């Protein structure tokens, strides 16, 4: 009886789990990328590809990681050294981040334009007259710097 209840409890929990994406052990990822597993370990140490880790420390590679490994292999075959590949990867990531930031800023800009067109001011405009007053500043006596 207790076993049946426990199984139902585990099944209920299993139904609530969302699967993000499939992951692969290092041997499978190496085969998919056409590399040796030791090469993947080296790339992990260098920071070229950083897979997620299990509680036991095992590497788990996503589809995106495998695609990145293929890109690294392609660039390496074209004669780019690992330092160059790392720079290319970092610049690509920075480029994606900047494009996303630009997209968000453009969307915000469009929203603000729409609000202005619809007569919704964001703040209050105040007229500030030009002043011809001159203010003289003098150091107070008896005070030190």
From TrEMBL:
PROSITE patterns: HTH_MERR_2. InterPro entries: DNA-bd_dom_put_sf, MerR-type_HTH_dom, MerR_fam. The keyword Chaperone does not apply. Pfam families: MerR_1. Keywords: Coiled coil, DNA-binding. One of its GO terms (molecular function) is DNA-binding transcription factor activity. Residues 23-91 form the HTH merR-type domain. CDD domains: HTH_HspR (cd04766). SMART domains: HTH_MERR. Residues 88-115 form a coiled coil. This is Transcriptional regulator MERR family protein. It comes from Corynebacterium callunae DSM 20147. The lineage of its organism: Bacteria, Bacillati, Actinomycetota, Actinomycetes, Mycobacteriales.
């Amino acid at each position: 009886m207790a076993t049946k209840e426990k199984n139902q409890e585990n099944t209920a929990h299993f139904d609530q789990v969302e699967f993000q994406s499939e992951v692969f052990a290092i041997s499978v990822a190496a085969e998919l990328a056409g590399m040796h597993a030791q090469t993947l370990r080296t790339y992990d140490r260098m920071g070229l590809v950083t897979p997620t880790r299990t509680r036991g420390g095992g590497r788990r590679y996503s589809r995106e990681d495998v695609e990145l490994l293929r890109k690294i292999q392609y660039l390496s075959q074209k004669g780019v050294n690992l330092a160059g590949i790392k720079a290319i990867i970092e610049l690509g990531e920075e480029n994606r981040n900047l494009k996303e930031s630009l997209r968000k800023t453009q969307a915000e800009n469009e929203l603000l334009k729409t609000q202005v067109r619809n007569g919704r001011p964001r703040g209050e405009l105040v007229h500030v007259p030009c002043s011809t007053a001159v203010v003289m500043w003098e150091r107070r006596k008896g005070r030190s710097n």
